[in-house]
Amino acid sequence: MRKQMPESHASRRDFMKQSSLLAGGVIAAPLMSNANYFSGASDVIKIALIGCGGRGTGAVTQALLSKQNVKLIAMADAFRNRIDMSYNEITKDDMSDAGITGNLKAMIDVPEERKFVGFDAYKSAIALADVVILTTPPGFRPIHFEEAVKQGKHIFMEKPVATDPEGIKRVLVAAEEAKKKKLNVVVGLQRHYQNSYRELFKRKDQIGDITSMQAWWNNDGVWVNPRKPEQTEMEYQMRNWYYFNWLCGDHITEQHIHNLDVINWFKGSYPVKAQGMGGRQVRNGKDYGEIFDHHFVEFQYADGSILNSQCRHIPKTSAKVDELFIGTKGKIFCGAAKITDLKGNTIYQFDKKGENNGYQTEHDELFAAIAKGEYKFADAENGAKSSMTSILGRMATYSGQVIEWDKALNCGLNLQPSAYTWDTLPKSLPDADGRYKIAVPGVTKFY
After folding, report:
1. The overall pTM is greater than 0.70
2. What is the dihedral of CA 239, 245, 250, 255, to 10 degrees?
3. Tens-place pLDDT, residues 161-213
4. 106: buried, middle or exposed (CB in 10 Å: 19+, 13-18, 0-12)?
5. By the 8 A CB rule, do 56 and 49 touch?
6. CB–CB of 289/409 below 8 Å?
7. Domains of the chain from N-terminus onward
8. Using an 8 Å Cβ cutoff, are 213 and 306 in contact?
9. Which of 8, 163, 222, 379 is disulfide-compatible with 249, CB 3.0–4.6 A?
10. Is the peptide bond between 6 and the residue preceding it cis, with omega within 30 degrees of 0?
Protein backbone atom coordinates (compact mmCIF):
# COMPACT_ATOMS: atom_id res chain seq x y z
CA MET A 1 0.00 0.00 0.00
CA ARG A 2 1.36 3.37 -0.95
CA LYS A 3 2.17 5.89 1.72
CA GLN A 4 -0.24 8.76 2.16
CA MET A 5 1.12 12.27 1.97
CA PRO A 6 1.38 14.31 5.15
CA GLU A 7 -0.87 17.30 5.46
CA SER A 8 0.32 20.48 3.78
CA HIS A 9 1.05 23.65 5.67
CA ALA A 10 -0.30 25.85 2.88
CA SER A 11 -2.50 28.64 4.16
CA ARG A 12 -5.94 29.66 2.91
CA ARG A 13 -4.36 32.90 1.71
CA ASP A 14 -1.92 30.92 -0.45
CA PHE A 15 -4.77 28.82 -1.79
CA MET A 16 -6.91 31.81 -2.70
CA LYS A 17 -3.95 33.58 -4.28
CA GLN A 18 -3.26 30.55 -6.45
CA SER A 19 -6.94 30.21 -7.28
CA SER A 20 -7.14 33.77 -8.53
CA LEU A 21 -3.93 33.47 -10.53
CA LEU A 22 -4.97 30.24 -12.16
CA ALA A 23 -8.68 30.81 -12.53
CA GLY A 24 -8.12 32.02 -16.08
CA GLY A 25 -7.48 28.46 -17.11
CA VAL A 26 -10.14 26.74 -15.06
CA ILE A 27 -12.67 24.57 -16.81
CA ALA A 28 -14.66 21.40 -16.53
CA ALA A 29 -16.60 18.82 -18.48
CA PRO A 30 -19.59 16.70 -17.56
CA LEU A 31 -20.77 13.27 -18.67
CA MET A 32 -22.40 10.04 -17.82
CA SER A 33 -20.91 6.94 -16.41
CA ASN A 34 -21.68 3.55 -17.89
CA ALA A 35 -23.21 4.49 -21.21
CA ASN A 36 -22.21 6.69 -24.09
CA TYR A 37 -25.24 8.94 -23.82
CA PHE A 38 -27.01 10.52 -20.92
CA SER A 39 -30.33 8.87 -20.23
CA GLY A 40 -32.50 11.92 -19.75
CA ALA A 41 -32.78 15.51 -18.51
CA SER A 42 -34.48 14.35 -15.29
CA ASP A 43 -31.43 12.32 -14.27
CA VAL A 44 -28.56 13.80 -12.31
CA ILE A 45 -25.24 14.06 -14.15
CA LYS A 46 -22.67 12.95 -11.58
CA ILE A 47 -19.33 14.77 -11.57
CA ALA A 48 -15.97 13.73 -10.11
CA LEU A 49 -13.23 16.31 -9.64
CA ILE A 50 -9.69 14.97 -10.09
CA GLY A 51 -7.24 17.62 -8.92
CA CYS A 52 -8.56 20.02 -6.29
CA GLY A 53 -6.25 23.02 -6.58
CA GLY A 54 -7.19 26.46 -7.81
CA ARG A 55 -8.03 25.34 -11.33
CA GLY A 56 -10.05 22.39 -10.17
CA THR A 57 -12.06 24.53 -7.76
CA GLY A 58 -12.88 27.03 -10.47
CA ALA A 59 -13.63 24.30 -12.99
CA VAL A 60 -16.11 22.46 -10.83
CA THR A 61 -17.78 25.75 -9.94
CA GLN A 62 -18.35 26.45 -13.62
CA ALA A 63 -19.59 22.91 -14.15
CA LEU A 64 -22.15 23.38 -11.38
CA LEU A 65 -23.24 26.68 -12.98
CA SER A 66 -23.93 25.08 -16.36
CA LYS A 67 -27.75 25.13 -15.78
CA GLN A 68 -28.03 21.37 -16.19
CA ASN A 69 -29.02 18.84 -13.52
CA VAL A 70 -25.52 18.16 -12.19
CA LYS A 71 -24.12 17.08 -8.85
CA LEU A 72 -20.56 16.84 -7.58
CA ILE A 73 -20.31 13.43 -5.92
CA ALA A 74 -16.56 12.70 -5.62
CA MET A 75 -13.24 14.50 -5.22
CA ALA A 76 -9.70 13.17 -5.56
CA ASP A 77 -6.26 14.63 -5.03
CA ALA A 78 -2.79 13.49 -3.99
CA PHE A 79 -3.05 15.87 -1.02
CA ARG A 80 -5.87 15.79 1.52
CA ASN A 81 -5.52 19.48 2.34
CA ARG A 82 -6.26 20.35 -1.29
CA ILE A 83 -9.55 18.50 -1.12
CA ASP A 84 -10.45 20.24 2.14
CA MET A 85 -9.64 23.73 0.86
CA SER A 86 -11.53 23.16 -2.38
CA TYR A 87 -14.54 21.65 -0.63
CA ASN A 88 -14.67 24.51 1.87
CA GLU A 89 -14.50 27.03 -0.96
CA ILE A 90 -17.34 25.57 -3.04
CA THR A 91 -19.63 24.99 -0.04
CA LYS A 92 -19.42 28.51 1.40
CA ASP A 93 -22.73 30.09 2.35
CA ASP A 94 -21.79 33.36 0.68
CA MET A 95 -20.14 33.06 -2.76
CA SER A 96 -20.61 36.66 -3.81
CA ASP A 97 -16.83 37.04 -4.10
CA ALA A 98 -17.07 34.58 -7.02
CA GLY A 99 -19.98 36.47 -8.57
CA ILE A 100 -22.50 33.87 -7.41
CA THR A 101 -25.76 34.76 -5.70
CA GLY A 102 -26.39 32.30 -2.87
CA ASN A 103 -24.40 29.06 -2.76
CA LEU A 104 -23.88 25.77 -4.54
CA LYS A 105 -24.59 23.41 -1.65
CA ALA A 106 -27.64 21.78 -3.21
CA MET A 107 -25.44 20.49 -6.04
CA ILE A 108 -22.67 19.09 -3.84
CA ASP A 109 -22.82 15.69 -2.20
CA VAL A 110 -19.30 14.60 -1.27
CA PRO A 111 -19.24 12.75 2.08
CA GLU A 112 -15.96 11.62 3.64
CA GLU A 113 -16.07 8.24 1.95
CA ARG A 114 -16.05 9.91 -1.46
CA LYS A 115 -13.01 12.11 -0.78
CA PHE A 116 -10.15 10.06 -2.20
CA VAL A 117 -6.50 10.79 -1.36
CA GLY A 118 -3.29 9.56 -2.99
CA PHE A 119 -1.74 8.85 -6.36
CA ASP A 120 -4.34 6.19 -7.20
CA ALA A 121 -7.29 8.19 -5.86
CA TYR A 122 -8.41 9.18 -9.36
CA LYS A 123 -9.43 5.62 -10.22
CA SER A 124 -11.95 5.40 -7.39
CA ALA A 125 -13.44 8.81 -8.11
CA ILE A 126 -13.74 8.19 -11.85
CA ALA A 127 -15.59 4.92 -11.20
CA LEU A 128 -18.44 6.78 -9.44
CA ALA A 129 -19.04 9.55 -11.95
CA ASP A 130 -20.69 10.27 -15.26
CA VAL A 131 -18.32 13.16 -16.02
CA VAL A 132 -14.74 13.62 -14.87
CA ILE A 133 -12.92 16.91 -14.53
CA LEU A 134 -9.15 16.43 -14.88
CA THR A 135 -7.35 19.43 -13.38
CA THR A 136 -4.22 18.05 -11.73
CA PRO A 137 -0.80 19.31 -12.85
CA PRO A 138 -0.56 18.32 -16.53
CA GLY A 139 2.14 15.67 -16.09
CA PHE A 140 -0.57 13.36 -14.75
CA ARG A 141 -3.01 14.09 -17.57
CA PRO A 142 -2.15 11.15 -19.86
CA ILE A 143 -2.72 8.46 -17.22
CA HIS A 144 -5.88 10.13 -15.92
CA PHE A 145 -7.27 10.56 -19.43
CA GLU A 146 -6.50 6.95 -20.29
CA GLU A 147 -8.33 5.73 -17.20
CA ALA A 148 -11.38 7.92 -17.83
CA VAL A 149 -11.62 6.67 -21.41
CA LYS A 150 -11.12 3.09 -20.26
CA GLN A 151 -14.02 3.48 -17.82
CA GLY A 152 -16.19 5.07 -20.52
CA LYS A 153 -16.62 8.54 -19.02
CA HIS A 154 -17.15 11.89 -20.66
CA ILE A 155 -14.23 14.16 -19.91
CA PHE A 156 -13.16 17.70 -19.40
CA MET A 157 -9.40 18.02 -19.11
CA GLU A 158 -7.30 21.09 -18.64
CA LYS A 159 -4.57 22.05 -21.04
CA PRO A 160 -1.82 21.09 -21.68
CA VAL A 161 -2.67 17.41 -21.98
CA ALA A 162 0.92 16.17 -21.55
CA THR A 163 4.41 17.49 -20.88
CA ASP A 164 6.54 15.21 -23.07
CA PRO A 165 6.27 13.45 -26.45
CA GLU A 166 5.58 10.02 -24.94
CA GLY A 167 2.67 11.51 -23.01
CA ILE A 168 1.36 13.11 -26.20
CA LYS A 169 1.40 9.73 -27.94
CA ARG A 170 -0.56 8.16 -25.09
CA VAL A 171 -3.19 10.88 -25.29
CA LEU A 172 -3.51 10.50 -29.06
CA VAL A 173 -4.14 6.75 -28.69
CA ALA A 174 -6.72 7.32 -25.95
CA ALA A 175 -8.34 10.07 -28.04
CA GLU A 176 -9.04 7.56 -30.81
CA GLU A 177 -10.59 5.18 -28.30
CA ALA A 178 -12.75 8.01 -26.93
CA LYS A 179 -14.05 8.66 -30.44
CA LYS A 180 -14.93 4.99 -30.88
CA LYS A 181 -16.85 5.06 -27.61
CA LYS A 182 -18.48 8.39 -28.54
CA LEU A 183 -17.28 10.02 -25.35
CA ASN A 184 -17.47 13.80 -25.34
CA VAL A 185 -14.06 15.29 -24.57
CA VAL A 186 -13.42 19.00 -24.04
CA VAL A 187 -9.95 20.44 -23.49
CA GLY A 188 -9.50 23.75 -21.68
CA LEU A 189 -8.52 25.82 -24.70
CA GLN A 190 -11.36 28.22 -24.11
CA ARG A 191 -10.70 30.61 -26.97
CA HIS A 192 -12.50 28.09 -29.19
CA TYR A 193 -15.62 28.94 -27.16
CA GLN A 194 -15.15 32.71 -27.01
CA ASN A 195 -17.47 34.75 -29.25
CA SER A 196 -14.86 37.18 -30.55
CA TYR A 197 -12.50 34.40 -31.62
CA ARG A 198 -15.34 32.46 -33.21
CA GLU A 199 -16.39 35.48 -35.24
CA LEU A 200 -12.83 36.20 -36.33
CA PHE A 201 -12.41 32.59 -37.36
CA LYS A 202 -15.56 32.74 -39.51
CA ARG A 203 -14.05 35.71 -41.37
CA LYS A 204 -10.42 34.63 -41.58
CA ASP A 205 -10.63 34.24 -45.38
CA GLN A 206 -11.01 38.02 -45.60
CA ILE A 207 -7.24 38.37 -45.14
CA GLY A 208 -6.44 35.90 -47.94
CA ASP A 209 -3.73 33.29 -47.45
CA ILE A 210 -2.08 33.48 -44.03
CA THR A 211 1.63 34.01 -44.62
CA SER A 212 2.95 34.87 -41.16
CA MET A 213 1.80 34.93 -37.56
CA GLN A 214 2.86 36.30 -34.19
CA ALA A 215 1.91 35.16 -30.69
CA TRP A 216 2.75 36.46 -27.22
CA TRP A 217 2.38 35.39 -23.59
CA ASN A 218 4.52 37.89 -21.71
CA ASN A 219 3.90 38.74 -18.05
CA ASP A 220 5.40 38.71 -14.57
CA GLY A 221 4.93 35.00 -13.87
CA VAL A 222 3.02 33.07 -11.22
CA TRP A 223 3.24 31.72 -7.69
CA VAL A 224 6.17 30.01 -5.97
CA ASN A 225 5.90 27.48 -3.13
CA PRO A 226 9.17 27.35 -1.15
CA ARG A 227 10.59 24.03 0.02
CA LYS A 228 9.71 22.86 3.54
CA PRO A 229 12.18 20.78 5.59
CA GLU A 230 9.82 17.84 6.11
CA GLN A 231 9.02 17.36 2.42
CA THR A 232 10.32 14.50 0.34
CA GLU A 233 11.66 15.46 -3.08
CA MET A 234 8.49 14.15 -4.69
CA GLU A 235 6.24 16.22 -2.43
CA TYR A 236 8.32 19.35 -2.93
CA GLN A 237 8.20 19.09 -6.70
CA MET A 238 4.46 18.41 -6.66
CA ARG A 239 3.81 21.36 -4.33
CA ASN A 240 5.97 23.59 -6.55
CA TRP A 241 4.86 21.86 -9.74
CA TYR A 242 5.01 24.85 -12.06
CA TYR A 243 8.82 24.78 -12.08
CA PHE A 244 9.40 21.14 -13.05
CA ASN A 245 9.02 19.95 -16.61
CA TRP A 246 7.60 16.51 -15.85
CA LEU A 247 4.70 18.22 -14.09
CA CYS A 248 4.33 21.53 -15.93
CA GLY A 249 6.24 21.43 -19.21
CA ASP A 250 7.68 24.94 -18.67
CA HIS A 251 5.54 28.05 -19.10
CA ILE A 252 5.75 27.79 -22.89
CA THR A 253 3.64 24.65 -22.50
CA GLU A 254 1.52 25.49 -19.46
CA GLN A 255 0.41 28.96 -20.59
CA HIS A 256 1.69 29.89 -24.05
CA ILE A 257 -0.13 26.84 -25.43
CA HIS A 258 -3.26 29.04 -25.57
CA ASN A 259 -1.73 31.35 -28.16
CA LEU A 260 -0.05 28.55 -30.10
CA ASP A 261 -3.37 26.72 -30.25
CA VAL A 262 -5.11 29.79 -31.72
CA ILE A 263 -2.50 29.92 -34.47
CA ASN A 264 -2.95 26.21 -35.24
CA TRP A 265 -6.74 26.60 -35.22
CA PHE A 266 -6.86 29.49 -37.69
CA LYS A 267 -4.07 27.99 -39.76
CA GLY A 268 -5.79 24.61 -39.89
CA SER A 269 -2.51 22.78 -39.37
CA TYR A 270 0.44 22.23 -37.04
CA PRO A 271 4.10 23.25 -37.48
CA VAL A 272 6.58 20.85 -39.06
CA LYS A 273 9.68 22.23 -37.32
CA ALA A 274 10.93 24.89 -34.93
CA GLN A 275 14.06 26.71 -33.89
CA GLY A 276 14.56 29.35 -31.24
CA MET A 277 16.31 30.66 -28.17
CA GLY A 278 15.62 31.02 -24.47
CA GLY A 279 17.09 30.88 -20.99
CA ARG A 280 17.01 31.93 -17.32
CA GLN A 281 18.19 35.50 -17.09
CA VAL A 282 16.20 36.88 -14.16
CA ARG A 283 14.13 34.14 -12.57
CA ASN A 284 17.03 31.85 -11.70
CA GLY A 285 16.77 31.15 -7.95
CA LYS A 286 16.56 27.70 -6.40
CA ASP A 287 12.80 27.95 -5.98
CA TYR A 288 12.32 28.16 -9.74
CA GLY A 289 13.30 24.56 -10.41
CA GLU A 290 14.50 23.84 -13.95
CA ILE A 291 12.41 25.98 -16.30
CA PHE A 292 13.39 28.99 -18.41
CA ASP A 293 12.06 32.50 -17.84
CA HIS A 294 11.88 33.37 -21.56
CA HIS A 295 11.46 31.62 -24.91
CA PHE A 296 11.44 32.91 -28.49
CA VAL A 297 10.54 30.37 -31.16
CA GLU A 298 10.25 30.45 -34.93
CA PHE A 299 7.75 27.76 -35.97
CA GLN A 300 7.53 26.77 -39.62
CA TYR A 301 4.40 25.27 -41.20
CA ALA A 302 4.29 22.93 -44.20
CA ASP A 303 3.37 25.76 -46.59
CA GLY A 304 6.43 27.76 -45.54
CA SER A 305 4.55 30.28 -43.38
CA ILE A 306 6.24 31.34 -40.15
CA LEU A 307 4.97 31.89 -36.62
CA ASN A 308 7.19 34.03 -34.39
CA SER A 309 6.25 33.20 -30.83
CA GLN A 310 7.45 34.65 -27.56
CA CYS A 311 6.68 34.07 -23.92
CA ARG A 312 8.32 35.63 -20.89
CA HIS A 313 8.02 35.46 -17.10
CA ILE A 314 10.06 38.43 -15.93
CA PRO A 315 8.75 41.03 -13.45
CA LYS A 316 8.56 44.69 -14.47
CA THR A 317 8.65 43.93 -18.19
CA SER A 318 5.95 44.75 -20.73
CA ALA A 319 2.95 42.44 -20.57
CA LYS A 320 1.20 41.12 -23.66
CA VAL A 321 -1.01 38.10 -24.35
CA ASP A 322 -2.25 38.15 -27.94
CA GLU A 323 -2.14 36.74 -31.47
CA LEU A 324 -1.69 38.38 -34.89
CA PHE A 325 -2.25 36.94 -38.38
CA ILE A 326 -0.87 38.54 -41.54
CA GLY A 327 -2.33 37.48 -44.85
CA THR A 328 -2.06 38.39 -48.52
CA LYS A 329 -5.05 40.76 -48.18
CA GLY A 330 -5.10 41.89 -44.57
CA LYS A 331 -4.48 41.24 -40.87
CA ILE A 332 -6.36 39.74 -37.92
CA PHE A 333 -5.74 41.34 -34.52
CA CYS A 334 -7.15 38.82 -32.05
CA GLY A 335 -6.88 40.90 -28.89
CA ALA A 336 -8.54 43.90 -30.52
CA ALA A 337 -11.00 41.51 -32.22
CA LYS A 338 -10.71 43.23 -35.57
CA ILE A 339 -9.70 42.61 -39.17
CA THR A 340 -8.00 45.23 -41.35
CA ASP A 341 -6.77 45.41 -44.92
CA LEU A 342 -3.05 45.81 -45.55
CA LYS A 343 -3.36 49.60 -45.38
CA GLY A 344 -4.86 49.46 -41.90
CA ASN A 345 -8.48 50.13 -42.83
CA THR A 346 -10.90 48.22 -40.63
CA ILE A 347 -12.83 45.52 -42.48
CA TYR A 348 -14.49 44.01 -39.42
CA GLN A 349 -14.73 44.99 -35.77
CA PHE A 350 -16.30 42.65 -33.23
CA ASP A 351 -18.69 44.42 -30.87
CA LYS A 352 -17.30 43.77 -27.41
CA LYS A 353 -20.83 43.98 -26.03
CA GLY A 354 -21.31 40.55 -27.55
CA GLU A 355 -18.34 39.02 -25.74
CA ASN A 356 -18.88 36.06 -23.45
CA ASN A 357 -16.96 34.11 -20.84
CA GLY A 358 -15.42 31.32 -22.91
CA TYR A 359 -14.67 29.28 -19.81
CA GLN A 360 -18.32 29.16 -18.85
CA THR A 361 -19.58 28.72 -22.41
CA GLU A 362 -17.60 25.54 -22.94
CA HIS A 363 -19.28 24.06 -19.88
CA ASP A 364 -22.69 25.29 -20.92
CA GLU A 365 -22.39 23.78 -24.38
CA LEU A 366 -20.89 20.53 -23.18
CA PHE A 367 -23.48 19.93 -20.47
CA ALA A 368 -26.31 20.85 -22.81
CA ALA A 369 -25.06 18.26 -25.29
CA ILE A 370 -24.83 15.62 -22.59
CA ALA A 371 -28.31 16.34 -21.29
CA LYS A 372 -29.63 15.89 -24.83
CA GLY A 373 -27.69 12.67 -25.37
CA GLU A 374 -25.58 14.22 -28.11
CA TYR A 375 -22.00 13.38 -29.08
CA LYS A 376 -20.50 16.72 -30.15
CA PHE A 377 -17.04 17.23 -28.64
CA ALA A 378 -13.79 15.51 -29.61
CA ASP A 379 -11.14 18.04 -28.54
CA ALA A 380 -8.45 15.61 -27.36
CA GLU A 381 -6.56 15.21 -30.65
CA ASN A 382 -6.22 18.95 -31.17
CA GLY A 383 -5.40 19.39 -27.50
CA ALA A 384 -2.60 16.86 -27.86
CA LYS A 385 -1.20 18.39 -31.05
CA SER A 386 -1.30 21.94 -29.70
CA SER A 387 0.39 20.66 -26.53
CA MET A 388 3.01 19.03 -28.78
CA THR A 389 3.48 22.35 -30.57
CA SER A 390 4.51 23.92 -27.28
CA ILE A 391 6.77 20.98 -26.43
CA LEU A 392 8.38 21.29 -29.87
CA GLY A 393 9.12 24.93 -29.05
CA ARG A 394 10.59 24.02 -25.67
CA MET A 395 12.83 21.38 -27.24
CA ALA A 396 14.04 23.97 -29.74
CA THR A 397 14.88 26.60 -27.12
CA TYR A 398 16.48 24.10 -24.75
CA SER A 399 18.71 22.63 -27.45
CA GLY A 400 19.32 25.57 -29.76
CA GLN A 401 18.77 23.17 -32.66
CA VAL A 402 16.18 22.94 -35.43
CA ILE A 403 13.69 20.40 -34.11
CA GLU A 404 11.43 18.54 -36.52
CA TRP A 405 7.90 17.55 -35.49
CA ASP A 406 8.03 13.88 -36.50
CA LYS A 407 11.45 13.29 -34.97
CA ALA A 408 10.46 15.06 -31.76
CA LEU A 409 7.23 13.12 -31.39
CA ASN A 410 9.05 9.82 -31.84
CA CYS A 411 12.28 10.60 -29.97
CA GLY A 412 11.20 8.63 -26.89
CA LEU A 413 11.45 11.55 -24.44
CA ASN A 414 9.63 10.59 -21.24
CA LEU A 415 10.02 12.94 -18.27
CA GLN A 416 7.82 10.97 -15.89
CA PRO A 417 9.21 9.23 -12.77
CA SER A 418 9.56 5.45 -12.73
CA ALA A 419 6.58 5.18 -10.36
CA TYR A 420 4.09 7.47 -8.67
CA THR A 421 4.84 7.08 -4.96
CA TRP A 422 6.01 9.50 -2.30
CA ASP A 423 9.37 7.72 -2.03
CA THR A 424 10.09 7.66 -5.76
CA LEU A 425 12.72 10.14 -6.90
CA PRO A 426 11.80 12.29 -9.91
CA LYS A 427 14.31 12.23 -12.78
CA SER A 428 15.37 15.83 -12.16
CA LEU A 429 17.15 16.15 -8.81
CA PRO A 430 18.95 19.02 -7.04
CA ASP A 431 22.70 19.14 -6.54
CA ALA A 432 24.38 19.70 -3.19
CA ASP A 433 23.51 23.39 -3.36
CA GLY A 434 19.85 22.69 -4.05
CA ARG A 435 20.01 23.67 -7.71
CA TYR A 436 18.56 21.70 -10.60
CA LYS A 437 20.22 21.01 -13.92
CA ILE A 438 19.18 23.59 -16.50
CA ALA A 439 19.07 22.95 -20.23
CA VAL A 440 21.99 24.52 -22.12
CA PRO A 441 21.51 25.45 -25.81
CA GLY A 442 24.24 23.83 -27.89
CA VAL A 443 24.74 21.12 -25.24
CA THR A 444 21.28 19.73 -24.54
CA LYS A 445 20.17 17.19 -27.16
CA PHE A 446 16.92 15.32 -27.79
CA TYR A 447 17.85 13.20 -30.81
Report:
1. yes
2. -70
3. 999 999 999 999 999 999 999 999 999 999 999 999 999 999 999 999 999 99
4. exposed
5. yes
6. no
7. 12-192+358-378 (3.40.50.720), 195-355+388-409 (3.30.360.10)
8. yes
9. 163
10. no
